[in-house]
Amino acid sequence: TAQGDVHFYRGRELRGLLRQSIQEGSVDGSVFSQAGAESFVAWLNGARVPWGVNVVGLFKAELGIGEAARQVVAALKAEGIPYRTVLRTETENRQEHEFTAEGDEPAFPTNLLCVNADGLIFLAPRLGENFFGGRYSIGLWWWEVPNFPLRWAEAFSYLDEVWTGSHYVRDVIASASPIPVHRVALPVLPV
Questions:
Q1: Which of 65, 43, 51 is nearest to 117 (CA)?
Q2: DSSP for residue 154
Q3: Nearest to 143 by CA among 127, 112, 111, 119
Q4: SS3 call for 53
Q5: Taking the alpha carbons of 137, 28, 9, 53 in that order, is the dihedral positive or negative?
Q6: Over the stretch 148-186, which tens digit does the pLDDT of each residue have?
Q7: Which residues have a Cβ under 8 Å from the Cβ of 12 and sit 6 or more positions away?
Q8: Who contacts 59 (Cβ-Cβ below 8 Å, separation ≥6)?
Q9: pLDDT (tens digit, 9 = 90+) per residue, 59-71?
Q10: 73-76: long-range pairs with CB below 8 Å, 24+
Q11: Residue 95 predicted with pLDDT over 60
Q12: Torsions phi, psi of 173, nearest 5?
């Protein structure tokens, strides 16, 4: 770590380093905030790690999870938070919503996957090991029925935490999850 090589930190170790810095209390606030990103970078002995979020989603799909992904990107853009979109099309649903992808390759140490658990199981092998390796990955999920299907438990293995849009969904997913599950309010932007 003394060499401060950016590519060194973008490998498999970044996820563990991020967890360690949070556990030690070295990150001020959320890693999505400027202060949080700066304190994490400082913790990495001054290495220049790019700050921002890779957002994966069915951005053109006319689905609730597609709309959630579009809202997240609009909020990141409105706040000036650097991001890359990773446009996915693996769905049977109509995909005619207008959306212009801004970059299609991940460039940042944090992934936000706006794809439900069943879709993530299908999508993760297509994204590849390098997509997840060394990155802190968060799933934004919805599941509005009382029991989370255990056949989707594999999806947790790709993530460090799950975000949900309601307390109910958080409670359902948390009952089956080996990783933290948080309720996070979705951004609502004026039209």
A1: 65
A2: G
A3: 119
A4: strand
A5: positive
A6: 999 999 999 999 999 999 999 999 999 999 999 999 988
A7: 133, 134
A8: 66, 69, 70, 73, 85, 87, 88, 97, 99, 101
A9: 666 666 777 888 8
A10: 73/102, 74/187, 74/189, 75/187, 75/189
A11: no
A12: -70, -40
Query: What is the DSSP code string of 97-149?
Result: S----S-SS--SSEEEEES-HHHHHHHHHHH-HHHHTTSEEEEEE---SSS--
Residue 14 in contact with residue 106, Cβ under 8 Å?
no
Q: What is the end-to-end Cα distance of the chain in Å, rounded?
A: 46
Least confident of 4-13, 54-63, 74-83: 4-13
| Cα separation, 69 vs 63, whole angstroms | 10
Look at residues 180, 74, 86, 185 and name the one whose alpha carbon lies nearest to residue 131.
86
